[in-house]
Amino acid sequence: MTFYFYNHPKKLIALFILLGSLMGCKQLDVFEQSQAFRNNDWKSNNPAKGQFLISDTSAAYQMFIIIRHTDAYRYNNIWLNVGLQSPGDTMYKQKVNLQLGEDASGWEGTGMNDIWEVRKNLFNKPRRFVKPGIYNFELQQIMRDDPLQQVMSAGLRVEKAVH
Predict the structure, then answer these.
(1) pLDDT tens, residue by residue, 17-37
(2) Residue 2 belongs to some domain of the structure
(3) How far apart are CA 137 and CA 51, in angstroms?
(4) Which end of the chain is more exposed for a tag (fewer CB within 10 A), N or C?
């Protein structure tokens, strides 16, 4: 009996690439949810809201705020009230000032044409969630302009920290 791939070196190489890619795949535990704003106007009474499930309380997680804005956004930063509610508790809110760019170097994040998306780490280091269950989040803009123009969407990303 001859080995099938012996006479087909291209198929053998393709098989090794396929096996290597399958062995290298690792599922990422990630949650990401954003809310789009009509006409790119974010009203202060329209917070971006959502919820995510935490089942593994032994793992550490990174949390990122995601802001998508146009090149015409007037400021280099954005002030937010960031709320997080663990299962069975009340919403805990904190004010956060996110830097989106600088006059000298331009916008942070990634851009395509006149649209920019920035992901900002909410904490300096990964955090653990104490309780398993469904967590609620809320992002409210607290800038002086209301509505805040040229903000397309806002949201939250939660991912297991890679050791």
Answers:
(1) 544 444 445 445 789 999 999
(2) no
(3) 6
(4) N
AA letter at 40: N
Residue 12 counted as domain residue: no
Please, are residues 70 and 116 in contact by the beta-carbon 8 Å criterion?
yes
Please write the tens of the pLDDT for every residue from 68-96. Answer: 999 999 999 999 999 999 999 999 999 99
- Per the CB < 8 A criterion, the answer to whether 139 and 47 are in contact is yes
Rounded-to-integer distance, Cα 113 and Cα 116, Å: 8
Place of tokens 């170097």: 105
The parent domain of residue 132 ranges over 29-160
| The total number of structural domains that make up the chain | 1
Distance CA 25, CA 139 (A): 33
**Assigned domain for 5 exists:** no
**pTM given for the model:** 0.80
Distance CA 130, CA 149 (A): 37
